[in-house]
Amino acid sequence: MKVKAVIFTISVLTLIVCSCNSQSSPNREQNASQENITYQKTGDKVFHLDSTMRFANQSLVLFNEGEEPKLSIFNQMNASVNYFDYESGELESKVFFEREGPNGIGNVAHMGHFQTSKDSIFLFSPWESKVYLMDREGKKMNSYSLTPPGRKESENKYLGYSLETSQNSPVFQKGNDLYINVVNSGQLKSEDGSLVFMIKLNLETKEKQYLEINQSILFNEFWGILFPYASTAVIDDNRIITSFAKNPKVSISNIENPHTIITEKEVSSSFIDEFKPFPKKNSEHPYYGYNFMDINHETIKRAFYTGLFYSNSEKHFYRVAFQERTEEQLELSRDGMQYAIVITDENLNKLADLELPRGKYYMDMTFVNQYGLHLANREAYKNNEDQLVFDIYSPAEKD
Questions:
Q1: φ/ψ (deg, to 5) at 315
Q2: Average pLDDT of the segment spanning 287-312
Q3: 273-300 burial, b if ≥16 CB within 10 A, otherwise e?
Q4: What is the pLDDT, as a whole number, of residue 33?
Q5: Which residues pair with 38 in a beta bridge?
Q6: Strand partners, 145
Q7: Between 20 and 204, where is the model more confident?
Q8: What does residue 179 show for φ and ψ, rounded to 5 degrees?
Q9: Burial class (CB in 10 A: 0-12, 13-18, 19+), 339
Q10: Cα torsion angle, 290, 293, 294, 295, sign
Q11: Buried b (16+ CB within 10 A) or exposed e, 321-330
Q12: What span, in angstroms and rounded, lies between the C-alpha atoms of 306 and 244?
């Protein structure tokens, strides 16, 4: 098997956090409010799984088929896209993909997907740094390389970022352009403090543009390795709104000029203390004199922001905060993870700050639609492995 060096970054960013995070304290009421709005659990949504599907899935996509909303899940266990009717929660159909041959998509581990219809399915391969365009029968219609011109695919490790399409690293489409989030590891320090956070891919010409944004705040101090430089960018009409893990502020830029920050606004959770940098032992980036394993262990204990979501119906943003953990709490894995969600209006004015029950949700599968914010319930799956249950949080006016 031909394994690319880019997977080092992916494995650290996605696997270490799954096995080494937790914090234990009594569960709090699932309710948060500020000014004239209250967010609370208002219902749930059940999707019925078959024996080939597991609870944890990296890539979920919502789209409409005519007037009917559909949930599409990429199943890495058998290289397929599974279509669910949103209203009934029933599994309707599947599309299977070949791993080898002219229609082959290769290694499906960590692969994500995106679609707006069943006729065009985009698959994102972190192993090859490629995008495959597949039809409704699972046949390959086109492929696109995301490697910069003049650089060999085997040199992707030098790019400083990895392709990891997921709910926290989503894809957007504007006309013939795909906007693809990437996960930056911060290993490469640019002179101006800019970080690549997104790739713009034209589907007709196959031209690529690597979108950068200034994050010198992340280089002025030492916040740890890998996680502090990860980001989520969402597109709202003609704006790109970007959230970096260790930056309390969220950046807004115009889609026509994404490199220039129009404004920054603090969107911080009251459930997270002020970020404190590590003292530098020397001036050598990226480890500043620390042993990799030691500083990685300390980094994952500290709080950071992960995931940014937008509701087109409510015009609300949701910024997910991951709370700090003690040494003892790291051993509890997902059962001890504590999250909070900061909710703002479309101008990033804070509306609410919601602290979630510890260990209850699998936040990597979060999505938003017109019915509310959907959080995957781990406890419900433990009780019935044939069901994927999402708790729905939505706003309610104060009495």
A1: 60, 40
A2: 94
A3: eebeebeeeeeeebbbebeeeebbeebb
A4: 41
A5: 33, 396
A6: 130
A7: 204
A8: -110, 110
A9: buried
A10: positive
A11: bbbebeeebb
A12: 8
Cβ atoms within 10 Å of 32's Cβ, excluding its own = 24
Rounded-to-integer distance, Cα 349 and Cα 91, Å: 39
pLDDT tens, 46-79?
999 998 888 887 799 999 999 999 999 999 999 9
**Which of 397 and 91 is assigned the larger pLDDT?**
91
**Tokens representing 375?**
């959080």
What the block records as the tokens of 261 is 């920050």
In 3D space, the residue among 377, 344, 323 whose CA is nearest the CA of residue 25 turns out to be 323
Unique residue bearing structure tokens 């597991």: 54
Cβ burial of 227 (10 Å; 0-12, 13-18, 19+) is buried
Residue pair 156/163 in contact (Cβ under 8 Å)? The answer is no
What torsion do the CA atoms of 111, 90, 52, 382 make, to the nearest 10 degrees? Answer: 100
The mean of the pLDDT values for the chain is 87
| CA dihedral (165, 168, 173, 174) positive or negative | negative
pLDDT the model gives residue 155? 58
List the alpha helices (DSSP H) in 193-256: 217-220
Quote the CA–CA distance of 390 and 399 in Å, as a whole number: 27
| d(C-alpha 38, C-alpha 33), whole Å | 4
More confident residue, 8 or 50: 50
Instruction: Return the structure tokens found at 1.
Output: 């098997």
C-alpha dist (Å) from residue 207 to 116, 121, 175: 21, 19, 14
159: alpha, beta or left? (left if phi > 0; alpha if psi -120 to 50): alpha
Contact present, 142 and 178 (Cβ < 8 Å): no
Distance CA 33, CA 320 (A): 16
* Cβ-Cβ contacts under 8 Å for 283 (sequence gap 6 or more): none
Residues 6+ apart with CB under 8 A from 292: 225
111-148 pLDDT tens trace: 999 999 999 999 999 999 999 999 999 999 999 999 88
DSSP letter assigned to residue 18 = H
Looking at residue 14, its pLDDT comes to 44
165: confidence class by pLDDT, cuts 50, 70, 90? very high
- Give the mean model confidence (pLDDT) for residues 241-256: 96
